[in-house]
Design a protein that fits this description.
Monomer. A divalent metal cation 2 binds at residues 111, 174, 207, 239. It is an enzyme of class 3 (hydrolase). It catalyses: Release of N-terminal amino acids, preferentially methionine, from peptides and arylamides. Strands 6-5-7-12-13 form a five-stranded antiparallel beta sheet. A three-stranded antiparallel beta sheet has the order 1-3-4. Strands 2-10-9 form a three-stranded antiparallel beta sheet, with no helix packed on it. It has four helices and 13 strands. It is α+β, with helices and mostly antiparallel strands and 255 residues long.
Length: 255
């Protein structure tokens, strides 16, 4: 079931989304050669705590995971696509880092992700990250009343495939609101004009993921959470929480 949010509820989600943006900004600023992934998680956790928000990630335990997620930040490095668990790994020059963060405030949730390079960027990584961001922009542009979920999926997939990149099969965005994952699912590839119609008051997390090698395959790491590319190539991830309104898409996790 899809809950249509009121204007007041969307405003409340914007406050949660603002905290997510602040946490990601702080973690990105702290990311440098020699800094551990756990250090980044601590930075994000401090932002949430100071804002009076909680984390929908911390303790989250879906059916596929062997243990509850132990952090407030997903830290995926190089060939890790999503769901990376913060650990003692220390960042190295040229690492491609994807950070995914959520916040819950006053009963409403925001969710967003960014990708960037630590230290000296490789041109091929810069192109990969830019493509993920362009795919996110295309998906958001398609998130208008009168379109359907398939129009968002098609917009994302067209950008990613045109660049020659893979898209992790079965992973994409989702509805969001009182809970981190709600209906509807928002695929990263699909046919235009298909799927659920977009209505004012819907809130969705749009999150393209791209694999540099062009394949779609992935596998879980031994921690049971981190998803890695099968071909060992690098991946990038970008995400915003977006509300569908009569005036067009409203990004709720922008800084």
């Amino acid at each position: 079931m899809v809950e249509l949010k009121t204007a007041q509820s969307i405003d409340a989600m914007r406050e949660a989304g603002r905290i997510v943006a602040q946490a990601l900004t702080a973690a990105r600023k702290a990311a440098a050669v020699g800094v551990s992934l756990r250090d980044l998680d601590t930075v994000a956790h401090d932002v949430l705590r100071e804002a009076g928000a909680s984390s929908p990630f911390l303790g989250y335990h879906p059916h596929f995971a062997p243990v509850p997620f132990p952090a407030v930040l997903c830290t995926s490095v190089n060939e890790a696509i999503v769901h990376g668990v913060p650990n003692t790994y220390r960042l190295r020059d040229g690492d491609l880092v994807s950070l995914d963060c959520g916040a819950e405030l006053a009963g409403w949730v925001g969710d967003s992700a960014i990708s960037f390079t630590v230290g000296t960027p490789r041109p091929e990584d810069a192109r990969l990250i830019t493509t993920a961001e362009r795919a996110l922009e295309a998906g958001i542009a398609a998130a208008v009343v009168g379109n359907r979920i398939g129009d968002i999926a098609h917009a994302i997939g067209t950008v990613c495939r045109s660049a020659g990149y893979g898209i992790p099969e079965g992973f994409g965005g989702h509805g969001i609101g009182r809970h981190m994952h709600e209906d509807p699912g928002v695929p990263n590839e699909g046919r235009p004009g298909r799927g659920m119609p977009l209505r004012p008051g819907m809130a969705i997390a749009i999150e393209p993921m791209v694999i540099a090698g062009g394949g779609d395959g992935y596998h879980p790491a031994p921690d049971g959470w981190t998803l890695r590319t099968n071909d060992g190539s690098r991946a990038a991830h970008a995400e915003h929480t977006v509300a569908i309104t009569e005036d067009g898409p409203r990004i709720l996790t922008a800084l």
